[in-house]
Each structure stands twice: as C-alpha cells, then as structure tokens.
Specification:
The mean pLDDT is 90. The protein has five helices and five strands; from the N terminus they run ααβββββααα. Helix 1 crosses helix 2 and helix 2 crosses helix 3. The chain folds into two domains: 90 residues, no CATH class; 64 residues, no CATH class. By secondary structure, it is an alpha+beta fold.
Length: 191
C-alpha cells in the first residue's frame, strides 16, 4: 500500500465538493480551490499534530543553552514541557522560538534541559493512519467553508470519526503504553 501523497489528499478534498482532480498542487496555474485546500490541509495537519502523538513527541530531548544562556527551540516545535519531578524549581513555556521560565520570570537558564517536545512534521513524514485522518478532517472543513452543506459535513464527519479511531489505535499500539507509564497511576497501585 502506497502512502497518501499531499496531491492525493488535495484531490480527495476538492472531490468532496464535486471538483475534478488536478495533476499538480504547485505552480502559478493551480485553481483557487486547490490553494484553499492546501491551506486547510496545512492548518488541520498542525492542529492534529499539536495534540502530541507518539510519532511526533520526544521525551528526554536535550535542549542546549546558547552563549547567552538562552534556550532556542527548533523551528518546528509545537509544544514543550519539562518533567516536574526533575525540574520542580522552573515552569517553562514556549515564547516564540525560545523557552521562558514563568516561575522565575526569565528566559535565561542556569543549565541545559531535558524536555518533552512535540514537533510539527511535514505531511510526507506522517504515518499513513494520520495522513488519512488529517485528509478526511481537512476535507470536512474545506467542504464546510467552500459549500456550507450540512449533508456533506455529516457524511464526512462519520468518516472522520472512523479515521480518528484508527489513528488513535495505531498511535497507542506503537507507543506500547501500559498503566504503569503514568506516575499518578503507578503511585496509587504501589501504595
């Protein structure tokens, strides 16, 4: 099975509103509907990846201070956090492309940090189940914006629910999670 390409995703989206497929999604002669579909696809891609999934989140990811003791984040960072059990004296948040410590009101750090970080990946880097989920969700949003048809939206909403369930199952299977992965659960069981 071949992975869904961005071209195929856009053709699915414009097909939902009754438009003919296109051969390319780049260049100066692409229809406005294709440009709009690409924008919606990118928007939904970022929205879904922002939730943080096994495939786009890394734990114990080292962030190194620069010469001025500030920590710059990779450009594709969607969210970042530090484990509270390791760093209970700071409360970091993302401010643009740098880290900021809300607890100490500074963007200057005394040490490098190991963080949990969620990255935005390109559509081509996603697992197939998420490509499908993003395509179907984007198609529903695109159709709603383009036509505003409740019939099309209800039809695609059912497909979206099914594809989301498949994506969640795939992500959970790859993550190999169990109840002991969560410290709060482990603490209760270990009493």
């Amino acid at each position: 099975m071949a992975l869904t390409s961005k071209l195929e995703a856009v053709n699915t989206m414009i097909g939902v509103v009754g438009e003919s497929p296109v051969n390319t999604i780049s260049g100066t002669s692409v229809p406005v509907s294709v440009v709009t579909a690409l924008n919606v696809l990118d928007e939904v891609n970022k929205e879904i990846q922002s939730e943080g999934w096994h495939f786009n989140t890394e734990h114990v990811y080292a962030l190194i201070r620069d010469a001025s003791n500030k920590i710059n984040l990779p450009a594709n960072t969607l969210k970042v956090d530090v484990p509270i059990d390791k760093y209970n004296d700071i409360d970091v948040v993302q401010r643009g492309t740098t880290l900021y410590d809300r607890k100490n009101h500074t963007d200057v750090f005394g040490e490098d940090l190991d963080v949990s970080i969620t990255f935005e990946l390109t559509f081509e880097q996603l697992p197939q189940q998420f490509r499908s989920y993003i395509t179907i969700r984007a198609a529903r949003k695109f159709a709603n914006r383009f036509l505003g048809s409740p019939e099309i939206e209800s039809f695609t909403l059912r497909d979206e629910i099914n594809s989301k369930a498949t994506a969640i199952d795939s992500d959970s299977e790859n993550a190999d999670r169990n109840i002991f992965d969560n410290y709060d659960v482990l603490r209760v069981v270990d009493r």
